[in-house]
Amino acid sequence: MSAPLSTPPHTRWGRAIGIAVGAALLVGVVVLAFMWPAITSTVKDFPIAVAGPSEQVTAFTSALDKNAAGRFDVTEAVDRDAAVQSIEEREVYGAVILAQAPEVLMASANGAVTSQIMSQIAGQ
User: Fold this and answer.
1) What burial class does residue 45 get, using C-beta atoms within 10 Å of its C-beta: 0-12 exposed, 13-18 middle, 19+ buried?
2) Whose C-alpha in 15, 39, 78, 113 is 20 to 30 A from the C-alpha of 94?
3) Smallest Cα–Cα separation from 122: which of 98, 103, 107, 109?
4) Please, which residues have CB within 8 angstroms of residue 103's CB and are 6 or more apart in sequence?
5) Stated pTM of the model
6) Buried b (16+ CB within 10 A) or exposed e, 19-44
7) How do 103-106 and 94-97 pair as beta strands?
8) Residues 44, 69 contacting (CB under 8 angstroms)
9) 83: helix, coil or strand?
10) E strand or H helix at 104
């Protein structure tokens, strides 16, 4: 006759719970590692150009310094063409043209974050 088949021992509950908790913690750490830069990032020294009459440019830059100190690196452009050239040469990410109707210019290839920042400036 043949020997009876033996069943493998059952996994203990403590070990199964430990593995589940360890896997959940590992997933939590990985998710946190990917989310951390988005949570803690801030805008700092964002290069923009401003063109227009000197009184308006001064008022605009002082308002930016008062409301968003250190967030923008403002360069004064002589006119709209100089601001466009600065954007094309990647010296600045966008420009604000102060005239009868203010205009906000931005490079189309800068990405979503740059577009959002420049759109917020346009809204204000």
Assistant:
1) exposed
2) 39
3) 103
4) 80, 96, 97
5) 0.63
6) eeeeeeeeeeeeeeeeeeeeeeeeee
7) antiparallel
8) no
9) helix
10) strand 103-106
